[in-house]
Specification:
- By secondary structure, the chain is mainly beta.
- Among the domains are: about 200 residues, Lipopolysaccharide (LPS) transport protein A like domain (lipopolysaccharide transport protein A fold), CATH 2.60.450.10; about 180 residues, no CATH class.
- The protein is built from two helices and 43 strands.
- The strands form two sheets. It has a 30-stranded antiparallel β-sheet that branches. Strands 1, 2, 3, 4, 5, 6, 7, 8, 9, 10, 11, 12 and 13 form a 13-stranded antiparallel β-sheet that branches.
- Strand 21 and strand 22 form a beta hairpin.
């Protein structure tokens, strides 16, 4: 017998222990050197054994074995490890055992007192483990749980699966349970003779996903159980029908595919019902999105959104949109340029929409250029557009528009900043069936609209202690020809007017190009703010404009119809992370009465947070008379539990409660629980007021990806 004491020793006889495949099928390079440390090493030439004792650590590559004692039997090619056996795998998994007896290549073997920490921090334990063929491991009387700290009690996971037998196959990347029991907080709640789920190395695998259960007065009791089909590495399909007691099944699914230079996804749904017309008919929708890169500059794509009728999406909870937009486009992003070509088709879903009056826009070509600033800060710009718009019933038009521009700015010795810009919008229209005071007009028309603007601002900054204050007066003079909006030019892109502080100093406060803001005017305002070193801030912006001539193309109620505009203001106060208030208003220039008010505030820490949104438009505004409030309260009760309640109410004379609801959510590292209640009071044709309750529970690694569900 040979005995040697070594602090560090490399030995080829023990190389087999760490040279074989990992527990989950990962291979190791057997040519890598083996490094071993131990307190004591013995060789028995008669028995053909080598034994290392005391703090044994064997390292080969990224695989590490630790044990109190390790014995290698050269005749039988068997490795035996005793006492506190720990094997660290290259993929991050850690195996523990009281005793292990393995072949040198680790393809066959037996472990007693087996435990395992998986790469996702899941835990697996068993009385014993048997390894066969290098790819299959069978556990006896096993327990599996992904929970780490859901309950706050280290010894009691939120849920776990106990099974008489568990088989893991590394090639199939699947874990199979036999005679399995699901336990919550140690209490058995479900039994199944068979259960399987992918091992933690799997990112995508065919199987059932988390079901959603619900009750509503439209569908009755319903359940949605998605089935995920991993067709290929770059392709999958999710089939998630809605089964209910009061309606026919809604067949629904989403197809996704990735390419080296793009991606595509399409969602389809379909059902039959008689709620809209009284006659059973087919209803459904499609929502598709495609994006592809042509090169580093250009990309193209399509969006297809269509529904069989106006109310289908809302009735079955797919969407609350009132317009569906489909388009095909090509766009390019240069260093200082942008170009795009689009084609649009719109489907109106509101009761008053008539599809034959909704235009098809194709093509719509845009080009935007901003030149490099020269040494004096001067910049040239160019905006170009070509648009063709066609209706089955109503005006159609084709437009070419070019707007070259030039601008410069200067900062003087006192710190005031002066900017100057000139532009000339040239537009040519070919129109047909445009309604005017003289009847319907057709033919060529256009305009040339030059404009110049001179802007000035003077920021003053003061620092006092931990705060900084800025006061900045602003002014602008804008000069352009009067009028310039002949009635032969149809207004297609400037129908909505939202006058506020964000567009107060814009040279054209119409939203698009079909309408221009002519005449001479002066704009003035003030911006001020307080800023703290710890992130708190308060800002105020207020302003008004004055037109030198009493002529305007803005509609009544817009705030811009008179020579003197309404006063617009915005106040934002955020003194701490727990208080955020935004107040926006538009005041009548004569009476100072609010014609529009928007208030949004969030107050409180995550433990109890209140939010309030208030909107008011008077009856003389371009919008209909509207006064509405939305209030809510949320609470992060604990690290795992959160709750929220909310209500929305119409404050006009004919109004009332529009909706209310709440949710209760539990979320931790191994499980999600969600309970959502909603009640609406509005009606839209065959979509009645809805009361619904949805319930979803997810057991991570089982409920989301498992091929079987409880």
């Amino acid at each position: 017998m040979i005995r040697a004491r070594i602090p560090l020793f490399a030995i080829a006889l023990l190389a087999g222990l760490v040279a074989g495949p990992a527990t989950y099928g990962q291979s190791s390079d057997s040519d890598q050197p083996v490094l071993m440390t131990a307190d004591d090493l013995e060789f028995d030439e008669d028995l053909g054994t080598a034994t290392a004792r005391g703090n044994v650590e064997i390292v080969q590559g990224e695989r590490v074995l630790r044990a109190d004692a390790v014995t290698y039997n050269q005749r039988d090619d068997i490795v035996t490890a005793n006492g506190n056996v720990v094997l660290l795998e290259p993929n991050g998994e850690v195996l523990f055992a009281e005793f292990a007896e393995l072949t040198a290549d680790m393809r066959e073997g037996f472990l007693r007192g087996f435990r395992m920490l998986l790469t996702d921090d899941s835990r697996l334990a068993a009385v014993s483990a048997q390894r066969r063929g290098g790819v299959e491991t069978e556990l006896t009387r096993a327990i599996y749980s992904p929970c780490r700290d859901c309950t706050g009690f280290d010894d009691e996971p939120l849920w776990q699966v106990k099974a008489r037998r568990v088989i893991h196959n590394a090639e199939d990347q699947e874990v199979v349970y036999r005679d399995a029991t699901l336990e919550f907080l140690g209490v058995p709640v479900a039994y199944t003779p068979f259960l399987s789920h992918p091992d933690p190395t799997v990112e995508r695998k065919t199987g059932l996903l988390t079901p959603t259960f619900g009750v509503s007065n439209v569908l009755g009791s319903s359940v949605q159980v998605p089935y995920f089909w991993a067709i290929a590495d770059d392709t999958d399909l999710t089939f998630d029908p809605i089964l209910s007691t009061d309606q026919f099944p809604v067949l629904s699914g989403e197809y996704r595919q990735s390419f080296s230079d793009g991606r595509h996804k399409t969602r389809l749904s379909s059902t039959v019902d008689d709620s809209q017309t009284g006659e059973t008919r087919l209803r459904g929708h499609i929502a598709s999105e495609t994006r592809f890169s042509i090169d580093d500059v250009w990309r193209w794509g399509t969006d297809v959104n269509a529904a069989s009728d106006d109310t289908y999406l809302q009735r079955y909870g797919f969407s609350g949109a009132d317009t569906l937009t489909s388009r095909v486009f090509v766009e390019g992003f240069g260093r200082r340029t942008y170009a795009s070509a689009n084609g649009y088709y719109f489907q109106g879903l509101r009761a008053e929409d008539e599809q034959e009056n909704i235009p098809v826009v194709a093509p719509n070509l845009d080009y935007n250029f901003v030149g490099d600033p020269n040494s004096f800060g001067r910049i040239t710009t160019l905006d170009a557009n070509l648009r063709a718009l066609t209706r089955d019933d109503g005006a159609s038009s084709q437009r070419i528009s070019l707007t070259p521009g030039w601008q410069t700015s200067h900062t003087d010795d006192f710190g005031s900043i002066t900017s100057f810009r000139v532009s000339a919008q040239t537009s040519l229209y070919n129109v047909s069936d445009v309604r005017t005071n003289n009847g319907n007009e057709s033919g060529l028309t256009g305009r040339v609209f030059p404009q110049a603007s001179l802007g000035w601002r003077y920021p003053w900054v003061r620092r006092a202690g931990s705060t900084s204050q800025i006061i900045e007066p602003l002014a602008a003079l804008i000069i352009a020809p009067n009028g310039s909006n002949p009635e032969e030019i149809p207004n297609e892109d400037s129908l909505s007017i939202a006058f506020d502080e964000t567009n107060l100093f814009d040279t054209n406060r119409f939203a698009g190009t079909d309408r221009v803001e002519g005449g001479q005017r002066v704009v003035y305002g003030l911006r001020t703010g307080f800023f703290g070193k710890k992130g708190g801030s308060s800002t105020l912006t207020v302003g008004q404009s004055y037109r030198f001539r009493d002529s305007s193309t803005f509609p009544s109620g817009s705030g811009l119809e008179d020579q003197l505009s309404d006063i617009v203001a915005s106040l934002q106060i955020t003194p701490t992370p727990f208080i955020d208030l935004l107040y926006k208003t538009r005041l009548d220039h004569d009476s100072l009465r609010a014609r529009r008010t928007e208030l949004s505030t969030i107050v409180g820490p995550p433990a109890l947070r209140l939010n309030l949104d208030y909107v008011f438009f008077d009856r003389n505004s371009v919008f209909s008379d509207r006064e509405e409030v939305t209030a809510g309260m949320s609470s992060q009760i604990t690290d795992q539990w959160s709750a929220r309640i909310a209500t929305r109410r119409d404050l006009t004379a004919e109004g009332g409660t529009l909706s209310y609801g709440g949710s209760l959510v539990y979320e931790c590292d191994c499980a999600n629980f969600e309970l959502v209640y909603n009640r609406t009071f509005t009606r839209d044709r065959d979509v009645p007021p809805v009361e619904s309750l949805l319930f979803r529970i997810t057991l991570k690694s089982l409920g989301q990806f498992g091929t079987s569900v409880f």
